Amino acid sequence: MSESETPMLHHHLLAAPEQHLQAAGFILRGIRGVLAVIGSVIAAVICAFVAKSKGYSAVLFGILGLIFSIITLIVVLVIPRKR
How many domains does the chain have? Predict the structure, then answer.
């Protein structure tokens, strides 16, 4: 048997890191997505509590906080209290 006919071990070893990198990328994207959802939920809860304490609708600002996260949090912190 010649070298070209026999699959060499290093051919298999060199192919493995590409597959591992693809799997790692998929896992990291999934983790990043989960963290984004958790961050949005936390922002929504904070927005709802702050809005309620300032006299605004907690439900409205909670939903906006879930969708727009940090932007809604900044808005709800800046707006004045209702009189």
Answer: 1
Residue whose C-alpha is closest to residue 50's, from 63, 61, 36: 61
Query: By residue range, what is the domain housing residue 57?
Result: 11-78
Residues 4-38 pLDDT 10s: 555 555 555 555 556 666 766 777 788 888 899 99
Residue 54 lies in a domain: yes
Exposed (0-12), middle (13-18) or buried (19+): which is 34, by Cβ within 10 Å? exposed
pLDDT tens for 48-68 read: 999 999 999 999 999 999 999
